[in-house]
Every structure is written in C-alpha cells, then in structure tokens.
Amino acid sequence: MAAATPLYDTYARAPLRFERGEGVWLIAEDGTRYLDFAAGVAVNSLGHAHPHLVSALKEQAEKVWHLSNLYEVPGQESLSRRLTEATFADKVFFTNSGAEALECAIKTARRYHFAKGQPEKFHIITFEGAFHGRTLATIAAGGQAKYLEGFGPKAPGFYQVPFDDMAALKAAITEETAAILIEPIQGEGGIRTVSKEFLQELRALCDEYGLLLVLDEVQSGVGRTGKLFAHEWAGITPDIMAVAKGIGGGFPLGACLATEEAASGMVAGTHGSTYGGNPLAMAVGNAVLDVILADDLLQHVRDVSLVFRQGLASLADRFPDVIEEIRGEGLMLGIKAKVPSADLLKAIRAERLLAVPAGENVIRLLPPLITTAEEAREGLARLERAAEQLTAERRQASA
Predict the structure, then answer these.
(1) Mean pLDDT along residues 208-219
(2) Given a cut of 70, is residue 3 above it in pLDDT?
(3) CA-to-CA distance for 355 and 365, rounded, in angstroms?
(4) Is 98 known to sit in a ligand binding site?
(5) Topology of domain 18-49+296-398, per CATH?
(6) Is residue 217 marked as binding?
C-alpha cells in the first residue's frame, strides 16, 4: 500500500497549514490567526516578515546568492567582526544550522589539544537531559537513548554526568578530558536553567584543569534571555560557543565562535562548509544584528519577560492542578504541567496559541523578541482559557 505522503515519517506534525505571517502572528490557509509563541522553536527571533529582514534578503537576492568559500565573502567579514566585537570571541566559522555549529565546536575543542601535542585529550563531558543536535556526534553528545537508538554504536568521546552535579563532574575529569559542553538553559530538556554559580564554577574548573568551556547557545542566545547571550548573566566567558536559530531570524544560519587560542588548531583544510556563510545568509544575519543590537531591544525583552513571568505566576497560583512550575529566563520560558503536556498543548492550540513541547512534561513559550506587552497579555489570556478548560475537564472526569 502506498504511503500517504512521500515525506519521511520522522515528524508528528500538527494538522495546521500556514500561508503567511505578520509579526507575532501566523495566518492559516483558512484565514485563522494564531499567536505564535513557538517562533519556529526560537528561530523567528524578530517574528514573521520583519521589514528590515525582508528588505535585506530581497536586496541581496538580486545580486548574488552563493559563492562557496573558495572566495572572500564581504558579508562574512562584516558579520564576524560584529559578532566578535559584541562577544568574547576572536574567530567565527559560519554554518547552516545549530547541529553544524556544534560539530564545529566539538572539532575545534578536540583539534586544540591535538595541535598542542595531546591527541589523547578528546573526551568531552556533557550533561544528562542535554540536546545538541541530530548528527551522529551531537546525539552522542546529548546522550539521550531515544535519539541514539538504532543508529549503531554511539560515537566515542562523550561522557554524560547528572545535571547540576558538581561532584559528579569533577569525578568525571580524566587525563583524556578535552572540554566541558553545556547549555546555559536546557531547551529540549525542559527549560532547565543552569545557575550562575554553577557556570562560574565550570569556568574556574576548566581553567584549573586546562579544559575548554564550550557553550551551546543555539536556543538561549541572540537576545532570548534579555542579554545577547545567556552566559553573560553569570559574568563568565566560554572558550567556544555554538550559535544558530535566532541569529538568522528564520534563514538557515549558524556560527561557531571561539577565542584565538581555542581556534588555533583550526588551520586551512581542517574544516569546511559548502553553503556556510553564503551571501544570502550573511545579508540576513547582518540585518538581524541591526535590530538585536539596537539600543532598546534587549531591555524590551527584559520588560516583556516581566509581564510574562508575573502573568504565568498568577496562572500557576490559580490553576495548581494544571501548572506545577514556571521556568526559564527572558523569553525562553517553560510551563511544567501537572496534566500530560500533550493535553495542555492541545488546549493551548484550541485557543489559537502556538507553543513547543519539551522534556520533563514541559511546554515551552518562545515568543519573538519583538512581542509587545499587549501581545504577551493576549497570550496569557489564551493560556488562562486553556487552563480553565483543562480544570473543568478534570473535575468532570472525577465527578
């Protein structure tokens, strides 16, 4: 019997078909408007059809789309300089996705020690519940059985320790350890925030043992927490950082950032990407930074986050049978549900609000960074109606 679709059956897609977007709204084919607090899983950082991004893409599309890295790409020079001026980094490698940015980060960390005459130092310590991508290396780094199953032996060189367990981390360090890789906030893992103190201890530990600190800011970066990058809240800097999602505002774009020292082993021929850093991606990435680095954007994120946090706290108090806990920072928020999270997500969608499931029975709210206080309150009102509906259903079921 022929399959219903020629597409791979790897996604459990919702039966929703959108034809256009406007800011924080998505419009379905039948004209129904949805408030988009999923943002393409934290990708559409500036919402849909942002005029500055559209203009930049159109302008570049009329010039040249792709060149490859056989030649100099002026947009790469511009975007890399802006990123290094705004961060800890000295060097940037452009990719097409977060997984590719993580692959580059892993290779950079291992190559650093190889170039120092220590090829045995290639092991990377990661944390349980982490998600670093879908390639063979990044599923090994994440260590989650559901992503590893059926793809042969796990790629070697990755060792997971329990989340937020410093004693276990210290015990895991050996002469073969090259780096520690961590998300400042676990996204897929359920919006679990690493404490400032833990990140500070990680930095000190890496300095003490000569390890590289690698941060995965694919989801938490580019303004999502109210700082340009989430690690800034802890007052530390990594040696290597993977970035993607919001940096392209919806265009496939990622980057691996590193200090001069950490990137010292990545010489000509050690890594490459055919599409990475092409002119179209660079035009959009530069346009995204134009907006993100504007004087008031990050303060706006912090202000709107306060509206969300207050509203979500109120909902948690009023609907304790539905909401167990509110998590996250900035506009990277999570609702740990008392009911099955699939039921909460269904109720939210029925109110024409889009959100994202995560681990630990959590629903993620990842609204565009341009979301207004009024739009935040509209989303909270829809969440309230969903919680009311679920509460009523539970009472009927127990009657």
Answers:
(1) 98
(2) no
(3) 5
(4) yes
(5) Aspartate Aminotransferase, domain 1 (3.90.1150)
(6) yes
